[in-house]
Design goal:
The strands form two sheets. Strands 1, 2, 3, 4, 5 and 6 form a six-stranded mixed sheet that branches. A five-stranded mixed sheet has the order 9-8-7-10-11, sandwiched between helices. Helix 2 packs across helix 4, helix 5 packs parallel to helix 7 and helix 15 crosses helix 16. It has 16 helices and eleven strands. The model has no long low-confidence stretch (mean pLDDT about 90). Among the domains are: about 100 residues, no CATH class; about 120 residues, no CATH class.
């Protein structure tokens, strides 16, 4: 088989395209494949079936293809610019690459697979010898293609969460599909309008299908849900509630540690993480040591027991029983005379309905918390992002479960 016929077969070329020449440079370790059009080719005018398109000019184009035996392979061709009867001019689409792309379809598909397996974009650049902008453009295009292909399936349970995007108080709002464990989209900031625009990506049919939304107690998120999906129940996320109670226990520990330190020696020295950990087996050296500490007559011990007792709330499946437990627990916590605990209890009382809704829907932002770990790894591998577009593309590429295949 001749070289020209081989590359015509590899590129899947058919008339009017054909390979004119294949040039191999050992010094540059490069193969250049020149593709040409058949002479006298005529194109139909898509705007008027009775007319034909006219050639308005030619563009010298070059595309990077998959390597040939580790030799860098380039496809070169003169592509006509077609002028239609309505006056528009458009470059002819070639069969081996997307319009205006710098790489062939096969190379683009290969880069997408590498991006899914390689932790960094720069690593893909090193493997393929492509420019960072080219690899990044392939990722962004793949995400756009995948977002357009998303079906309008029902999304009964959503998760609405926030994530720090940069240093300081810079946040993004993230919408997740809890049942399919995927990121639907994200927008900058965590304000009311941002949350509304995020819910606005759903079609009217999808919004009507939403039964409940898991979220923190952030007022902007709650208002956005009540406005955009008023039929959906708000379910406050159990992981955020546990975080608030854990922070309250730590606040009590700090206050008591300072008080005991002024009086002499504090038994709480170096015990910060001991109060925040879980001891499922109860027989480890750490568990035995913590049990001895917890049995001391300390305010921190009382705060810890209040926090641990609340975990039973999540076991109730009947709203009436959950409410009776919550009322008894909150009354007991308010009598504890521990101000950090009382502050959290007052906040939970204000959001009692959202807490009780958990007994009916049994959803949480667990998948969003898992995505937070993945997003943190993406940020670390990328060494930060210059703009939100690249940040969004990375998250949707790795966490959106998109169909990004070509063709």
């Amino acid at each position: 088989m001749k070289d020209t016929a081989l590359y015509e077969h590899l590129l899947g070329l058919k008339s009017p395209w054909s390979v004119k020449s294949v040039d191999l440079s050992l010094a540059e370790q490069r193969v250049v494949v020149e593709v040409v059009l058949k002479r006298g080719q005529v194109w139909a005018d898509p705007t008027d079936a009775t007319k034909r398109a006219h050639i308005n000019g030619w563009s010298e184009r070059q595309w990077r293809h998959l390597d040939t035996c580790q030799f860098e392979t380039l496809i070169k061709a003169r592509v006509p610019q077609l002028k239609y009867s309505d006056g528009t001019v458009q470059e002819l689409a070639v069969p081996w690459a997307e319009r205006y792309s710098r790489v062939t379809l096969l190379m683009e598909a290969f880069v997408i697979k590498l991006l899914q397996a390689c932790p960094t974009t720069q690593g893909v650049c090193d493997l393929t010898r492509l420019a960072w902008s080219t690899v990044n453009g392939i990722m962004v295009s793949a995400v756009e293609r995948g977002m357009l292909r998303r079906s309008e399936d029902d999304v009964p349970y959503l998760g609405l969460d926030e994530k720090s995007s940069e240093r300081g108080h810079s946040y993004v709002s993230i919408l997740t599909d809890i049942e399919r464990s995927r990121v639907l989209d994200l927008v900058p900031e965590r304000k009311l309008e941002a949350a509304k625009s995020l819910l606005g990506i759903l079609s009217p049919t999808q919004r009507a299908s939403v039964k409940a939304v898991a979220m923190d107690m952030w007022p902007a998120f709650m208002s956005a849900v009540q406005t955009c999906v008023p039929q959906a129940d708000i379910v406050h996320d159990r992981f955020h509630v546990s975080k608030y109670l854990g922070e309250a226990v730590d606040a009590v520990r700090r206050q008591e540690h300072r008080s005991l330190g002024k009086a002499g020696t504090s038994q709480l020295t170096g015990s910060k993480w001991a109060w925040l950990k879980r001891y499922p087996d109860g027989r480890s050296a750490e568990a035995v040591s913590f049990r001895a500490l917890n049995q001391l007559n300390l305010k921190t011990s009382r705060a810890w027991r209040i926090k641990e007792t609340f975990t039973q709330f999540w076991l109730y499946r009947y709203t009436g029983a959950a409410k009776r437990f919550f009322d008894a627990w909150s009354n007991n916590a308010m009598r504890s005379r521990l101000e950090p605990i009382k502050k959290v209890v007052k906040m939970l009382r204000r959001h009692e309905t959202g807490l009780l809704n958990y007994s009916q829907h049994r959803i949480s932002n667990a998948c969003a918390e898992g995505f937070n770990s993945a997003i943190q790894l993406i940020k670390a591998n990328a060494r930060g992002f210059r703009n939100f577009i690249n940040y969004r593309a990375r998250i949707l590429f790795h966490c959106g479960k998109l169909d990004m295949s070509l063709g």
